[in-house]
Design a protein that fits this description.
6-stranded mixed beta sheet; 18 strands; 597 residues; alpha+beta; disordered N terminus
Length: 597
Amino acid sequence: MRRHSRCVTTATRAAARGEKRFYKFEELPSKNTLGLPRVPIPELKGTIEKYLSSVKAVCTEEEYKSQLNATQEFLNTEGPSLQNKIVQRDHEASKHGGYPAFHFQPYWDDMYLGMRCPCPVNSNPYYIFKKHDDDKSQASVTARVIWSATSWWADLKKGNTAVEQTKAGPLCMGTFPYIIATSRIPGAVADTIHHCPDSDYIVVFFKGKPYKVVVSNVSVESLTESLESIIAHGTPQDASREIAVLTSDDRTDWADSRSVIMKDPNTKHTVDIIDNALFIVSLDSNDKELPMVEQCRSHLVGLPDTIADRWWDKLMITSTPQCNVGLVMEHAPADGAYWNTWLAKSWEIYMEKTSPVSQTNPTAIPQPLSVGEVPEKLVAIAREKNRTVSESLDMAFREITTVGSSQIKAAKMPPDAYFQVCLQVAYYLKHGEIAATYESASMRNFWRGRTDTIRSCTPEVVELAKCVKEGGKKDLRQLLVNATTMHRNITGYTLQGEGIDRHLLSLNQARDDPASPHPLFTSSAFKKSSTWTLSTSNVTSPFLATFGFGPVSATGYGVGYQLFPETVPLAITSYEKGGSAELSGVLEGVLYDLLRA
């Protein structure tokens, strides 16, 4: 593995002492103020060895033998030259700074922005916050959330945000400027990212109509009055002019529709304002409390009466008359580790329940934004396509109360590893086969690091799952220890930048003709081991009720989970009718039973 030394700068020392103003906001994305190491490029042989271990878990013996030959041929021919190529490219990039900040960044950006499927379900994750007894009205709770989020943003821009410290050192702040004031602009072939960090306003959608609301130096009370005015006096948009619905379409069709509606000067003015806003606020108007699973659906793909208020190309805060508040994130510029920090800090501000007494701009008067004529059926077609997607999506929410992290720890098991192992056993019990599994690993300990994959499916998990299903008499406890230990090992090296999937991506793309990949990357074993049947993420946070995302394969599941001391909330998605609830039920039983092995 190519080692990267950590440069100890004056800013690094200041950050370690908890000092603020050690950075300039405008330099955060381009200047490595903290002296963080770049994302490492692992040794080629080590990556191949780890890859073969993951292949062995999900493939047949014949497929595995074929991969042994393919990887050996790769190591003996073009593998070393491709390794040298990406190492040299990264070395050159490190000398001048800027883009790319890590070896797979161009391919990563191309993947997100070149994606042609709709952002809802396929890209944008959602969070739903816990409710509090003092949340009096939709307007007041939403105003406090807006004020808290923008207060953190103002501190970040002023240089007043302290760096997060871990045992391994500080975490990167370079992506923070892109989680707010950023829009994804659809293109015919690929999208682009538009950033407007000097924006001082948000756009509120209510009953399909957009409103501009200035939020800079505005009190919570003024924001509340502004939202109350919109809710009290807002009237429904004509169905044909509900242009937010168009953002739910596949990216190329949305790009075509956008080029059409932008010909109208009023609509163009409105869309430009939306693109430059800090974020979107969606004020839902459902007249009764929705079950949690329907709240999840409303955030992931939209409901018939909420889709007109969802602008999927930007960060969105949502709220209901019952004071349920959620968040939908546009995934291209950032990942969960950044959102989680922003939300945790914003939550602290929210819970303080105060705002500055002195305001330089004390009023937040909503400005209605107009939409011109939209060609007949343009919105209706997009709405119908969204309905089809929503109806094809199976969703389940379950809050497991029979097991929590406290019981798992009492059994001397690492909670996340235990959950991951149990999930794969549950899948095996339900489907009779093992599943390639993705668990997200944050790379924020490196400069501009994004994520890598914890490949949770291992031969140790396979042995345990088969033993459970067959009712074998082997020592289940020892098999469980073996499986969780291996998971912890994989997690450890992945978090240190020695994961395999981003490295394999760079190796594959470094060929002179990436469109003609080496046979290693086209084999059935490679496809099977990297088609994520189980796409998983753990965001255990005290302010979240649940969170979720869509499945990433046609026969797979998206599994968002939290490991609280006494409960395990799950939000599961799939395209198998009833499959999500069934898997969650099997999983609850496995989580309970294996603790008693």
